[in-house]
Amino acid sequence: MAALMSAATARASAGLALAVVVYASLYPFEGWRDQAPTWGEWWRSPWPKYWTAWDLWVNWLGYVPLGAAFASWLGRQKPSWPRAVLAVLLASAVSFALESLQSGMVHRVASNLDWALNTLGALCGVGVMGVALRSSWPQAFSVWRRAHLFKGAGLMLLVLALWLLLQPLPMLLPFAVGRLPPQWWDQAAATVPRWWPQFTPWVWAHWTWPQQAASLVALLAVPAGVLRFTWRDVWSRVAGVWLFLALAVLLPTLAHAWSYGWSHAGDWLMPPVIESGLMAAALASLLMVLPALLVAWCLFLALVAQYLGVNALAETGYWTLHWQSFTQGQFVRWYGLLAWVAVLWPVLTLIMLVRSRWMTRAQVKA
User: Fold this and answer.
1) Is residue 339 scored above 60 in pLDDT?
2) Are 269 and 249 contacting, i.e. CB atoms less than 8 angstroms apart?
């Protein structure tokens, strides 16, 4: 039976789903207390007297993707009921462990109802994935994937999807992901030559508009250039570039509309951003036809330079107010998670590029 996705993509999807569940369950990762007698008591307690429909839906729905990811990982080519049961038990064990940890946190409450709903959600996810794996769709998708995508393209597309999810975040420069927390950067700066922390902001401050525009073009062209390692057909890559950049503009626009109203949705789309976006689209389209190894090295060096440059930018009052507006109310966990993904995205992409560089050289004479 054909696999729905490659082994590496299945493992990455399962790991990503698990990371999201762990983050959502243990946030804010503080307020720990010593409650040893109650660590194993919560699951034997009576059902909670008070609950809301929101709690029921969130606890059920949150584990559906985890169950589906585990089922795809464990039963990628040989779906069977023992593997399905194992996927459900594994997701239920994750829920049990996280609920037990929550019993030791001031900000969280362990609940056997949550555990039951999590397990039910995982069961539904496993069931949906089991039906998908037994249908004819995986076979057709596998044939299409081998004909149109490079090996390992699924991981590249997953990396690009993560980048798009980051775009609603407030950034010191549009599309500038990879900024470390200020205290981390200060510690890292202490380990490099003394002149470096002062040198990089000086360079940025003394750059002219063409140089700053080139930096913005690179911030957009680098993720778009990753599409070079996905589709085999050149025109599909070029079309994918323009679609990808359109989404890169749409998502921050919607985020601004959500925070400040539709009348301010396009405030961030200043002429330099639009001009840089068009130049980035042209540059990324050119990358789609260049040799894969050359593109890999260019993106590798650009990502390293981006990581250093983004962390050298000084925070502004506008950025601080923008961040505070985005991190209010019930979405604080979402933006907190995105902030961590933004820190790790360049590193993940560098790893994928190194991996893809050797795979591409073995497969493609282009």
Assistant:
1) yes
2) yes
Section 40-47 average pLDDT: 70
Measured at the alpha carbon of residue 285, what is the angle toward residues 279 and 291, in degrees to the nearest 5?
130
Single-letter residue type at 323: W
Q: How far is CA 17 from CA 124, 146, 161, 275, 334, in A?
A: 15, 25, 14, 37, 14
Q: Which of 281, 283, 288 is nearest to 226 (CA)?
A: 288
Judged by DSSP in three states, 358 sits in: helix
Residues, the chain, total? 366
Handedness of CA 170, 173, 176, 179 (dihedral sign): negative
Q: Does residue 312 surpass a pLDDT of 50? A: yes
| Sign of the Cα pseudo-torsion (186, 191, 194, 195, in order) | negative
Burial 94-111 (b: 16+ CB within 10 A, else e): bbbebbbbbbbbeebebb
User: Which pairs from 208-215 meet CB under 8 Å and 24+ separation?
Assistant: 209/272, 212/272, 213/272, 213/275, 213/276, 213/279, 215/173, 215/309
pLDDT in tens, 75-84: 765 667 788 8
User: Closest Cα to residue 98, out of 15, 27, 46?
Assistant: 27
pTM of the model: 0.68
Q: Shortest CA distance to 69 belongs to which of 133, 149, 145, 160?
A: 133
* 105, β-bridge pairs: 32
φ/ψ of residue 10, rounded to 5? -65, -45
Report the Cα 232 to chain-centroid distance in Å.
24
DSSP per residue, 39-78: TTTGGGSPPPS---HHHHHHHHHTTHHHHHHHHHHHTSS-
First and final CA of the chain: distance in angstroms? Answer: 32
Q: Give the position of tokens 């591409």.
A: 360
Tokens found for residue 191: 């380990």
Residue with tokens 């525009």: 213
Residue 109: pLDDT over 90: no
Q: Do 188 and 180 touch, CB atoms closer than 8 A?
A: yes
- Per-residue tokens: 347: 């590193």
**CA torsion through residues 11, 80, 144, 281, sign:** negative
What residue segments make up the domains of the chain, in order of their start?
7-147, 149-363
